[in-house]
């Protein structure tokens, strides 16, 4: 059993609607278990902790009402970072700082919530703890709208982002169909190497709307010439065409359609610059009709006003499950969803070894994409439908949603005042 002490939680990577629900689940699990004295929160992830930035969450969230508000607050209450934790052999001083903090504050468990790059942090911290025989448990909790973490049926945050994409696609269809002129509208959706989010646009189809008429994902080779032929074929049947494309669509040689230059981010990911705009400009030279592109960009990440209740509820549960797993002795693992059935939809939460997850990527099975590479199959829709079900109840004041106060994230003097007090 776990020795009673304190724990700390961090969030990193891109924001989602549901990551605070997982944080709320962790806090609720801790309150229910009574196995921890205090729970701290890293501000701006592992990078912020290295700078000495943290909060005492036990003093911030003291009621169920405050935890419920946290559950429906979008993005990251604790803030984020894009910090790539170096290997111990390269920068041992970084680990010495972190583990000195853990010792000083009697931290027995670290919970880290994030996506692919965040799980890299979990595996490195776990490896160091094992190497030094340090008595601490480190548990990963998944998060990413990209839905590309392996070993889990889906990721917290994806269902809500998928619901937003499908809803926005339907609303764009209503906007587009009112004009009695031929047009092509290209909707660019996030997804560098995995097209899960773009595939969810297919959920927008109704008895009166076929939009999106075409769907292009990174998992199927993209051809500009075939793209034009696809558009011309659909134009024979419909006046207004709506296309969903992933930001990371690639040609047969694996080159991104939208990539220019050689710039990369901290994790070595190539910077992309507008697949939708690239296709818009190309089509304007090929077709004699109105062409426009719409990039959903960051709006698809934190749209709490159209969150999936299934996503939020499951995210709270996976946070609670992480706490119980740590109490039972789990470390060097990530909590995962295991789908038991589609109808009725049912999942269980199970742990999986972090080394099988970190720095790996789950893409859409080719069998879930049609042979032409411009649409998805019914198997994909069966998988997606349950994940966007249900709506959350959000409180409002003066016409705006009531969310948690995040002054600590944007007031640069906050921690100075904290130290003074």
Automatic annotation (TrEMBL):
Mg(2+) binds at residue 116. Residues 8-324 form the Phosphofructokinase domain. GO terms for cellular component: cytoplasm. It is found in: Cytoplasm. GO terms for molecular function: 6-phosphofructokinase activity; diphosphate-fructose-6-phosphate 1-phosphotransferase activity; metal ion binding. Its EC number is 2.7.1.90. Its cofactor is Mg(2+). Its main location: cytoplasm. Non-allosteric. Substrate binds at residues 144-146, 190-192, 247. Pathway: Carbohydrate degradation; glycolysis; D-glyceraldehyde 3-phosphate and glycerone phosphate from D-glucose: step 3/4. Pfam families: PFK. Diphosphate binds at residue 14. One of its GO terms (biological process) is fructose 6-phosphate metabolic process. The keyword Protein transport does not apply. Catalyzes the phosphorylation of D-fructose 6-phosphate, the first committing step of glycolysis. Uses inorganic phosphate (PPi) as phosphoryl donor instead of ATP like common ATP-dependent phosphofructokinases (ATP-PFKs), which renders the reaction reversible, and can thus function both in glycolysis and gluconeogenesis. Consistently, PPi-PFK can replace the enzymes of both the forward (ATP-PFK) and reverse (fructose-bisphosphatase (FBPase)) reactions. Belongs to the phosphofructokinase type A (PFKA) family. PPi-dependent PFK group II subfamily. Clade 'B2' sub-subfamily. This is Pyrophosphate--fructose 6-phosphate 1-phosphotransferase. The gene is pfp.
């Amino acid at each position: 059993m776990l020795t009673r002490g304190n724990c700390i939680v961090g969030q990193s990577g891109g924001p989602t609607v549901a990551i605070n629900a997982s944080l709320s689940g962790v806090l609720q699990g801790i309150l229910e278990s009574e196995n921890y004295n205090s729970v701290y929160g890293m501000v701006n992830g592992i990078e912020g902790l290295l700078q000495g930035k943290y909060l005492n969450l036990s003093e911030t969230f003291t009621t169920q009402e405050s935890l419920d508000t946290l559950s429906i607050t979008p993005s990251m209450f604790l803030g984020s970072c894009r910090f790539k934790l170096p290997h111990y052999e390269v920068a041992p001083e970084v680990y010495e700082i972190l583990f000195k903090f853990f010792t000083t504050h009697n931290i027995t468990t670290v919970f880290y919530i994030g996506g692919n790059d965040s799980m890299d942090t979990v595996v490195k911290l776990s490896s160091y703890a094992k190497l030094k025989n340090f008595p601490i448990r480190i548990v990963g909790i998944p998060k990413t709208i990209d839905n590309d973490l392996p070993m889990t049926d889906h990721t917290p945050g994806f269902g809500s982002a998928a619901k937003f994409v499908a809803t926005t696609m339907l609303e764009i269809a209503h906007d587009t169909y009112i004009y009695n002129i031929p047009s092509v509208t290209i909707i660019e959706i996030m997804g560098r190497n995995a097209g899960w989010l773009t595939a969810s646009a297919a959920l927008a189809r109704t008895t009166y709307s076929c939009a999106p008429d075409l769907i292009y994902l990174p998992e199927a080779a993209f051809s500009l010439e075939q793209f034009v032929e696809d558009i011309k074929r659909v134009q024979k049947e419909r006046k207004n065409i709506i296309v969903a494309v992933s930001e990371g669509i690639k040609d047969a040689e694996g080159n991104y359609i939208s990539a220019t230059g050689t710039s990369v981010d901290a994790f070595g990911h190539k910077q992309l610059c507008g697949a939708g705009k690239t296709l818009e400009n190309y089509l304007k030279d090929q077709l004699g009709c109105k062409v426009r592109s719409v990039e959903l960009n960051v709006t698809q990440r934190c749209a709490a006003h159209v969150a999936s209740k299934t996503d939020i509820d499951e995210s709270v549960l996976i946070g609670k499950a992480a706490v119980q797993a740590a109490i039972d002795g789990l470390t060097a693992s990530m909590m995962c969803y295991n789908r038991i059935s589609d109808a009725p939809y049912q999942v269980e939460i199970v742990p999986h070894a972090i080394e099988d997850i970190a720095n790996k990527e789950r893409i859409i099975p080719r069998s879930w994409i049609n042979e032409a590479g411009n649409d998805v199959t019914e198997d994909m829709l069966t998988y997606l439908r349950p994940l966007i079900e249900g709506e959350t109840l959000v409180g409002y004041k003066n016409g705006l949603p009531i969310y948690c106060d995040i002054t600590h994230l944007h007031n640069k003097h906050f921690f100075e005042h904290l130290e003074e007090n």
